Inverse folding.
């Protein structure tokens, strides 16, 4: 998400909190995700954040609405509520892939059908895609076999939504499996363009993590094409 | 580990704490693993535990010695300190597979070489094996490709140590890749036989988890061949 924001708003100052102590959120319970997402937003507000983006799809799916009710005075954008209407308006047979938490929540289904009840939706949890990216195996036979297992059921769709932060890194692999006729959609790109930041603070971005991030160098290169300087702090 | 303990001591009462809110420990930082392992042991002691087994290999590797110093009045067994001398006495060219945390700590190397400085040790982190088991993919082409990637470097070893709780579930797959001449060693089995419990409490075991466990039904069937009743509590 940071990469997509910087593409749309170069130099935008970002205060980032990655909950590496408790990740992955994709297999955690609903109450857990709500509780920690709430703590993190409170902490970011104390640090001067003026606009909140929930960059985790699982947190968006399980806690987005809850968080907007909890913090009424600030804009909280997530990976579903702004992108979904755009996607619903452009496609009619939509595949969704994400973490078990995101898929089980049916948040995408609800948002898309609210926009257009005629849309056909096919969804699939792909839990091995995140560790695959964290291992840096974005191609090769193991990656191809995993993609084959998860994606073989997608037939006759016109778009496939990558509803997890890590999946856009596997875009080429996914595209290869589903074929060129299916549009691969990254909600983070749509969201970044919709954000229209009011505050354009060009100060230095800060990247906080609740524990030493695993394989950070490789992952930040894959996601941002540059290295970041992590600040380790676990305030909860 | 629970399965191996019950095999050696049927009906032994177990108070289990699975830190599902913060798992996996295998990619977390050393300070984090020490801090939460300490909190968990304190909590188990409050609940009446009289003998502690660190059933997580990463916690054993990163925090075992620290925890024994911290809690001097109680026996704390881990997955390395009792099994390593047995393994060092039986083999001379030993492969170790485990999480990135366990492998990076070099705890196995230190313990084995302390027993016998002539042992040759070859180690490899296999981060995708845990999510593979949690997905229930214990065979099939994706599992075989992942095993091939991780295990192809093991040549001329006489034993391969499964230094992670989840790996024994992949024993058949691992055996198939490395061949029948290599002994597959599960430290949990050795530890269970070494424990010689003083207290044989036949009361009902309790299984606490800090968050709703993902895929519990499948995993408890794979590990224990029976279902368990989870109690969800996050005291930290």
């Amino acid at each position: 998400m940071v990469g997509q924001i910087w593409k749309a708003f170069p130099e935008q100052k970002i205060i980032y909190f990655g909950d590496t102590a408790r990740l992955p959120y994709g297999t955690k319970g609903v109450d857990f995700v709500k509780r920690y997402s709430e703590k993190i937003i409170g902490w970011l507000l104390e640090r001067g954040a003026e606009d909140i983006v929930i960059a985790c799809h699982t947190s968006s799916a399980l806690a987005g609405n809850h968080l907007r009710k909890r913090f009424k005075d600030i804009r909280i954008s997530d990976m579903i509520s702004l992108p979904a209407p755009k996607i619903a308006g452009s496609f009619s047979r939509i595949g969704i892939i994400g973490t078990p938490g995101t898929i089980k929540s049916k948040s995408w289904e609800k948002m898309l059908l609210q926009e257009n009840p005629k849309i056909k939706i096919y969804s699939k949890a792909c839990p091995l895609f995140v560790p695959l990216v964290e291992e840096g195996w974005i191609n090769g036979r193991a990656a191809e076999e995993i993609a084959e297992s998860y994606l073989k059921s997608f037939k006759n769709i016109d778009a496939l939504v990558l509803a997890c932060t890590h999946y856009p890194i596997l875009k080429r692999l996914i595209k290869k499996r589903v074929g060129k006729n299916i549009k691969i959609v990254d909600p983070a790109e749509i969201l970044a363009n919709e954000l229209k930041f009011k505050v354009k603070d060009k100060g230095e971005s800060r990247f906080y993590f609740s524990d030493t991030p695993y394989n950070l160098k490789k992952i930040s290169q894959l996601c941002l094409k540059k290295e970041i300087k992590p600040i380790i702090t676990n305030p909860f």
Q: What stands out?
A: Chain A touches chain B at residues 20-22, 27-29, 32, 100, 127-128, 130-132, 134-135, 137, 140-142, 144-146, 148-149, 211-212, 214-215, 232, 234 (CB under 8 Å). The longest helix of chain A spans residues 30-46.
